[in-house]
Amino acid sequence: MMLNFFDQFMSPVLLGIPLIALALLLPWILFPNPAARWINNRLITLQGWSISQATHQLFTPLNQGGHKWATLLISLMIFLISLNLLGLLPYTFTPTTQLSLNMAFAVPLWLATVIVGLRNQPTIALGHLLPEGTPLPLIPVLIIIETISLFIRPLALGVRLTANLTAGHLLIQLIATAVFVLLPLMPTIAILTASVLFLLTLLEVAVAMIQAYVFILLLSLYLQENV
């Protein structure tokens, strides 16, 4: 039974071909494309308003140099939200439950922010490793601690996204299994459990969007330190 719960996180394979590539490409087909008309429909208007608000919230604290990253990070946020939400549908696979994929997103972007900081303002970037006013005996220890915390950042990004989505999927499957088991035995308890499952599903929809937003928010904060 326990092995079956974790089978949903295995990458599906058809005729020896991993379908994770299809799961990564599918969300881009679902986005509506703006038409050449002056007046768009409500869906495209809502999509544009949401992107505008997210861009304003994330990139207002950054200076002009950080605004160059807006297209990349906002596109990644929309992509992650789409993957997370599509993974909540029945008989679907969520690529963002794979730590390797999340690390593939986190490590290059984190490394790019560090390289930008070292190239544009190396003194300030290295100064983050040693807080101002540190006593002389603590300087070596603090440099080691700050260096470790710097290199842990991409791992924390990937693990946070993976752990939250994995925990949510497991809870949904466990409660859904309990509903099917209790339905013939105790219908009243099964109905109450099904209501809890419905509320949990709504919570997971919110978590799917919030975690993608937090992923990009933390990257923008790392970028703010280096531009």
Automatic annotation (TrEMBL):
Span-the-membrane segments of this chain are 12-31, 69-89, 101-118, 138-159, 171-199, 205-223
Membrane protein topology class: Multi-pass membrane protein
Xref: PROSITE patterns: ATPASE_A (PS00449)
User: One GO molecular function term?
Assistant: proton-transporting ATP synthase activity, rotational mechanism
Q: Which SUPFAM superfamilies match?
A: F1F0 ATP synthase subunit A
Q: Name one GO cellular component term.
A: mitochondrial inner membrane
| InterPro entries linked to this entry | ATP_synth_F0_asu, ATP_synth_F0_asu_AS, ATP_synth_F0_asu_bact/mt, F0_ATP_A_sf
Q: Which domain of life is it from?
A: Eukaryota
Q: What is its main location?
A: mitochondrion
Report whether Mitochondrion shows up as a keyword of the record.
yes
Where in the cell?
A: Mitochondrion inner membrane
Task: Please give the Pfam families that the UniProt record associates with this protein.
Answer: ATP-synt_A
Q: Does the keyword Transport apply?
A: yes
Listed A to Z, the keywords are: ATP synthesis, CF(0), Hydrogen ion transport, Ion transport, Membrane, Mitochondrion, Mitochondrion inner membrane, Transmembrane, Transmembrane helix, Transport
Q: Which reaction does it catalyse?
A: H(+)(in) = H(+)(out)
Q: Identify its protein family.
A: Belongs to the ATPase A chain family.
**Assembly state and interactors?**
Component of the ATP synthase complex composed at least of ATP5F1A/subunit alpha, ATP5F1B/subunit beta, ATP5MC1/subunit c (homooctomer), MT-ATP6/subunit a, MT-ATP8/subunit 8, ATP5ME/subunit e, ATP5MF/subunit f, ATP5MG/subunit g, ATP5MK/subunit k, ATP5MJ/subunit j, ATP5F1C/subunit gamma, ATP5F1D/subunit delta, ATP5F1E/subunit epsilon, ATP5PF/subunit F6, ATP5PB/subunit b, ATP5PD/subunit d, ATP5PO/subunit OSCP.
Name the record gives this protein:
ATP synthase subunit a
Species in which this protein is naturally found: Esox flaviae (southern pike)
Upper lineage is: Eukaryota, Metazoa, Chordata, Craniata, Vertebrata
